[in-house]
Amino acid sequence: MSKKVSFFNFSINKILSPDQSILDQARIRLLFYGFWIVFVAAAGLLVSVYFQHQFILTVTSGIVLVLLFCLFKYLTYKPHWAQISHALLIMATLVNINNVYIVMQKVDITTVQVMLLVILFSFYMLGQVWGLFYSLLNLLPVLVFLVLDYDESYFIPLVPEKVDQATTIISIFANFIIIIFIHSQLYNALFNNIKQLKKTSEEQIELNKKLELAIDKAEKSSQVKTEFLSTMSHEFRTPLNAVIGMSNLMLMGNPRPDQKENLNILKFSANNLLAIINDVLDFNKIEAGKVVFERVQFNLLDLMQNICGGQMLRAEEKGLKFILKIDPILRNKMLIGDPTRITQILFNLISNAIKFTKKGNIWVRVNCEEDRQDAITVNFTVRDTGIGIEKSNLESIFEPFIQESITTTRQYGGTGLGLAIVKRLLELQGLHMHVISKIGEGSEFSFNMEFPVAPETAEEFYRKNLLSKRNTSLGHVRMLIAEDNPVNVLLMKKLLSKWDITPTIAENGERAIEMLQYGNFDIILMDLQMPVLNGFDASMLIRKMQDPKKSGVPIIALSAAALHDIKEQILDSGMNDYVSKPFKPEELMEKIQSLVSAVA
Predict the structure, then answer these.
(1) pLDDT of the residue at 289
(2) Distance (Å, rounded) from C-alpha 51 to C-alpha 442?
């Protein structure tokens, strides 16, 4: 009990607590009020047998009264009802056996009543096991006595005491009162328990209804969020596609040095904005558990040079020394894994290192930890001499939308999603990030990743790809583009003209199907969100055409949408591949070459 009770307490209210169950409260009440009934009965018997000069019964009644008072006092100080119940049952058993074998030397109605009291009280207060124990403890000795008495073989050198009719009436009346009282308490506890169960059941039903409403609301909210992200990603990325695409085209046109500098700044800013949008969309994808890790061949040396190339320029602009060290063992190996996700992890770590370092160095180390015949374990480490992180904040920095402090957010900017994305991408692969940091001295982030090793070397891989590209020309490719945005159409025409491709343009999905019915095309670039007929429906209708050459034409989806389920929708509608706007020209060229050569 949480309440502190004085030793001199005599109130039941101070030994009852809301923490106790209805049944336990009923047991305490039964003991508390039952003691008063037994007190009165025992005192009446004591007076009756005393005036009848029954010595043994007088002594027994006196001892019982003293023990009852001690137990009652213990109850009002420490309401350990189980211990008190055991004491009462042992006392009743001893008194009953004493009466049968020594005092009265017979089994009468009072003996039977005491046995009933013991059976009822033990089961109600202590449960089935103890109920059986005390019932048999009282029943068996009485049965043994009845057998001995029946054979007239029981004898002790002590004259049995006899009581008058008044004493018998007091005993019978007291026993019946106690039996009725026990039943009333039991019934009341049972009734209240049923009422409470009914109330709890009704509350549970009400809570279930509220829970269903909350789940339904959460599902609708999630759907609205998904639709909002889909819409906003499309709205943001569509103009960014034009900005980055036009910047690429103008940079490909040999601009003057001053123009090139301006274009690079424009492209850099657009890419930064795109990175923030991608962070939000990637985090949404990761949280939804929709990330699928690719297994493609790549060379770690080339991947690290691509990741660190632009970052080196950022570091140099801040006056930082950027040091990249790659284990020579890794230089000519082709690994199998997901280079996109590795890029995402390392890009975020290196970007943070540069962002939070005002002076000093940035180290990026890639070491071979274990080299086996068909697999290799690689350690990636990014270290800086930046502002450092408080020890108490080392866990919180990996939480979404959280940076070390508000001051850090205001001074350095960012969404606070970079490290959250890094942590979750590693956790999805069963990996752990190790962080060492000291305030004012810098931070070090490192993790190990295991890769299968491809059978061919990097040199063999690139020689094969170079021969493939030399043998493939795009000038002959007949291309149909389904796109409703005039800026994107202009951008595509300018880009494709660099590859000697003159595309046919359809302003929506319905028009694209008509053009395909009356013309022949080697490949289709299909925008997804178009008026009249969208790209998904248009692709499904194309796949149902009678002419196998037309129904089997390769289709590449082009869309600014970037949600986690977009790839599944694209494949389900019959399209072959997907390029997200803004796209890299070399990525689009590679996919076109691959699909056109596969059909040819």
Answers:
(1) 62
(2) 97
Alpha-carbon distance of 575 to 579, in angstroms, equals 11
| pTM reported for the whole predicted model | 0.49
Sort strands 577-580 and 321-326 into parallel, antiparallel or unpaired: unpaired
Non-local (6+) Cβ contacts of 287 within 8 A are 424
Collapsing DSSP to helix, strand or coil, 155 comes out as: coil
Backbone φ, ψ for residue 232 (5° rounding): -65, -40
Among 557, 481, 475, 477, CA closest to 515: 481
The number of beta carbons lying within 10 Å of the beta carbon of residue 155 is 8
pLDDT (tens digit, 9 = 90+) per residue, 68-103?
889 888 888 888 889 998 998 998 899 888 888 888
Beta bridge partners of 363: 323, 383
pLDDT bucket at 473, cuts 50 / 70 / 90: low
The pLDDT score that the predictor gives to residue 219 is: 76
Per-residue pLDDT at 303 exceeds 90: no
Tokens read off for 83: 């211990």
Tokens of 533: 């007929």
Closest C-alpha among 349, 344, 429, 414 to residue 386: 349
Instruction: Spell out the residues 6+ positions from residue 114 whose beta carbon is closer than 8 angstroms to its own.
Output: 92, 95, 96, 99, 138, 175
Residue pair 547/519 in contact (Cβ under 8 Å)? The answer is: no
Q: Which of 588, 574, 495 is nearest to 528 (CA)?
A: 574
CA atoms of 402 and 342, how far apart (whole Å): 22
**Inter-axis angle of helices 418-428 and 257-287, nearest 10:** 50
Tokens of 512: 């694209």
Average pLDDT estimate for 499-509: 90
Instruction: Give the tokens for residue 259.
Output: 């123009």
DSSP annotation of 320 reads P
Report the first-to-last Cα separation within the chain, whole angstroms. Answer: 84
In whole angstroms, what is the distance from residue 316 CA to residue 303 CA? 20
In this structure, the number of other CB atoms found within 10 A of the CB of residue 295 comes to: 9
Listing DSSP states for 217-250 in one string gives: HHHHHHHHHHHHHHHHHHHHHHHHHHHHHHHHHH
pLDDT tens readout for residues 308-333: 877 888 888 889 999 999 999 888 88
Q: Which helix (H) or strand (E) holds 125?
A: helix 109-126
CB distance 543 to 509 below 8 Å: no
> Given the structure tokens 């490192």, which residue do they identify?
446
